[in-house]
Structure formats: C-alpha cells, structure tokens
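Kindly draft a polypeptide, keeping tokens residue-aligned:

***
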Amino acid sequence: MGGEVRGTEKYALDISCIVLAGGKGLRLGRDKALERVDNSNLLQRVVSQLSSFSNDIIVVTARDKSPSQFIGYPGFRIVADAYPGKGALVGLGTGLAASNSWHNLVVACDMPFLDQALLRYMIQLSPDFDLVVPRVGELVEPLHAVYAKSCLAPVERLLSQGNLRIGALFDLVKVRYVEADEIDKFDPQHLSFFNINTKADLERAEQLAKGIE
C-alpha cells in the first residue's frame, strides 16, 4: 500500500480519522464541540475538513455527550471514552481500539483551522513510522498527529501503569517529528494548532475565520 496522493482521490494508504471530543471544556465553561465558528460548530468544521482523507471518521466522546445531534455529517462513528475524564491518552487508546485501519489521523475537536496540505504531508510520511507528529521548538502537537495501530499496545501498557501522559508514548514507539521548517511550507502561521480553550480564543477564531475563509 502506497501513500501517494493523486489529486483529490482517496488515499491508497489505509487510514481512519479519529476526533477526540471528550474534553470537559473547563476553562471555557461549556462543551467546546458545540461552540460555533463562522456558522458551524467546531466538531462539524473538523469532520468536514477530515472527510476528504477517509470514509471512516471516529468521534471519541464522553458517555453523556451525543454528537449525533449536532454533527450533521453521516460518515462517522461515535465511541465512548473507556475512562471518561482521564485525558487525551485514554481517548487515543479508545479511538485506536475502535479503528479498523492501521494508520489513524488523530486531531482534537477544537482545532478549527486544520490545513489539509499539512495533514496530507504527514499522512505521506506515516508508512515508515508508528507516530508522525509536528514539533515547533520544544512544543509537540500530539493531538494533530498520525498514529499507527502499533501504538495501541504501548498506550494500553501506559494506562495499566496509571501513566496518563500522552508524551510518555513517544519513548516507546518509532516517531517522525515534523519540524517547524516543514510546517512553514504549508502553514506558516501555524493556525493548524490553534485550539479553543477560552472565550478569547473563540472570539479570535471567529475573527480569523472571517479573514481567511
């Protein structure tokens, strides 16, 4: 299976998309996935941007949420966090366990400005690695990455040890870091990694959306 891209065709690479939507939105004070930017909610925006990469989109959410009520997109599956409220590593493990694909594009639900060209580049790099993840200086973006199914066993091992740090996985798998100079070719403003945590973030996202879309 090759990772070549031909125009807008689906990828020859076997890939699913996993959207982590189980966060409580504590700093914002409400469910982030429901917040609207430029006339669509955050989860709708993310799923729409991922739909060109795969027909299999997995939304990992808390058991008390019901994304099907507002996502407005048919090609997705909803799975509940195995251990709600325990963080992104649990959500990652839940998504990988539910996926039928070897490679999985994993993003958070509160990233409204995903760059398809950058994601495509990361997917193309993924066949030779367990994990492809952006890195800007010392800052790594584990919720904007491509994870192979081979990461599932190390994730489960960390969870069984009570280690919830997603960064702990990096020492256990073969990682390809996508460095700042590579990112700059596709997304020089690094808006791909802009995420919504506060009301101010939401207001800035609305301004950005009006300016670039």
Observations:
- Residues 1-11, 25-29 have pLDDT under 50 and may be disordered.
- Residues 199-212 form the longest helix (14 residues).
- Helices lie at 42-50, 88-98, 116-125, 152-160, 180-186, 199-212.
- The CA atoms of residues 110 and 196 lie 5 Å apart.
